[in-house]
Design goal:
The chain is an alpha+beta fold. The protein is about 45% helix and about 20% strand. The N and C termini lie far apart (about 60 Å). The structure holds 2'-deoxycytidine-5'-triphosphate and magnesium ion.
């Protein structure tokens, strides 16, 4: 079936929101992420900062080396989330199905509303106009016959761009001499494998299909299809239960060995996971613990459980997993649930269930809050809403680390 798909992607999203709200930041190299004296990476940066070669995921120290005069700011996720919800409202008006890829990015299926490319162009124009007028932000929009082509089109003229790729031929004409990395989903590792085999351009992938499939298996098959512009995927409207997992993690400014502290942090992370799970009415049938040690070695441990959405359950399972892990300085710790479902599976009989007051763990929860109040002198229970916020959680954890 013929599709008309729009891909919208905000320009330098976090940075643009901050610049909108604080005019003194405009026109300057603005870097959102960790502070230069902290550990961490760049989340994003303004286009002015990109001139210095700074980009998302770059180590913050490297960014600072390139641009010591830049303005560095922590992200303010709650604000971006609120803006994202306003964006969804605009996007949903013009499409039958919207698939949110990130806070600032979505695929819109406009096949019905637009009827043809002229209609889609008009919808794109209205979306760009409204985003600017109502939210004071600029975006780049691509209109195309497939998801991959739409995503490629939105990147083509960034920032404040607009581009169309009406059919497979237009896609192939545009891409044929480009590096394989320009094919969406080809990451650094995949590209290295292709380069090592002498395959550099999209043309090479087209001409050496068997070789690509031999090298990359299933992904290779998908890639050869893409090289010919074939992508029949549909826009999948976002449903929270389609999320694969819910997790929260934290990087310490200095490595931590104190086990009591690490378990307390797991408790806070579990509270955050519970908060999100309850918001979407989701239960996990597995709990995960994630750790990065000081030497950057990463491990994930997981365990299947009866349906679980309460902080105390997540915490207890995560602690059990933690007990089995080698004792070494830890840089990052995370907890989460996976195998999500909207159904609560009751494995206990009804009588058991009535007697089982431990499921929500009210008393254990209270006990843990009390212990932590004694240890750190903080009223966690009274400030839960703040703890759920990434920046407060981060600050709280640092405070706990320094006072442990
Ligand atoms: N983000 C992040 N870490 C990354 C990549 C992105 O935290 N490694 C965040 C910050 C971005 C937002 O997600 O503002 C959107 O990501 P994009 O890749 O769309 O980047 P931008 O919108 O910032 O810039 P662009 O204009 O290139 O789209
Ligand atoms: Mg963006």
């Amino acid at each position: 079936m013929k599709q008309i798909i729009i891909h919208v992607d905000m320009d330098a999203f976090y940075a643009s929101v901050e610049m909108r709200d604080n005019p003194s930041l405009r026109g300057k190299p603005l870097i959102i992420g960790s502070m230069p004296n902290e550990r961490g990476v760049v989340a994003t940066c303004s286009y002015e900062a990109r001139k210095y070669g700074i980009h998302s995921a770059m180590n913050i120290k490297e960014a600072y080396r390139r641009c010591p005069n830049g303005i560095y700011m922590h992200p303010n996720f709650d604000k971006y989330k609120a803006v994202s919800e306003q964006l969804h409202e605009i996007w949903n008006t013009y499409s039958e199905a919207s698939e949110y890829v990130a806070l600032d990015e979505a695929y819109l299926d406009v096949t019905k509303q637009a009827e043809n490319f002229d209609g889609a162009r008009e919808i794109a124009r209205i979306i760009k106009r409204r985003t600017l007028d109502e939210l004071g932000l600029s975006c780049s929009v691509g209109v195309a016959y497939s998801k991959t082509a739409a995503k490629t089109a939105s990147e083509e003229k960034k920032p404040n761009g607009y581009f169309e790729i009406p059919d497979k031929k237009a896609f192939v004409d545009l891409m044929i001499d480009r590096d394989v990395r320009s094919l969406y989903t080809v990451g650094v590792k995949t590209a290295e494998k292709l380069y090592a085999a002498g395959l550099h351009t999209v043309r090479d992938v087209q001409e050496k299909q068997d070789e690509v499939i031999r090298l990359l298996g299933k992904q290779g098959h998908w890639l050869t299809q893409l090289a010919f512009g074939i992508d029949n995927r549909k826009v999948e409207p976002y449903l929270p239960q389609n999320a694969k997992s819910i997790s929260r993690e934290l990087t310490f400014q200095e490595d931590v060995t104190n086990e009591v502290l690490l378990k307390d942090i797991l408790f806070l992370l579990s509270l955050c996971v519970e908060n999100r799970a309850k918001r979407y009415g989701l239960y996990g049938k597995g709990v995960t613990l994630k750790i990065t040690f000081s030497d950057m070695k990463r491990i994930t441990r997981s365990k299947l459980v009866v349906s679980c959405d309460s902080a105390i359950e997540i915490y207890k399972e995560a602690v059990q997993l933690f007990e089995l892990v080698e004792k070494r300085p830890i840089r990052l710790i995370g907890a989460g649930i996976y195998n999500l479902s909207t159904e609560y599976e009751k494995q206990l009989s009804f009588d058991d269930y009535l007697q089982d007051t431990s499921r929500t763990g009210e008393s254990e929860l209270k006990e843990q809050f009390d212990k932590m109040q004694c240890r750190y002198g903080l009223d966690f229970e009274g400030h839960l809403e703040q703890i759920y916020r990434w920046d407060t959680l981060h600050k709280t954890a640092e405070y706990m680390r320094k006072h442990s």
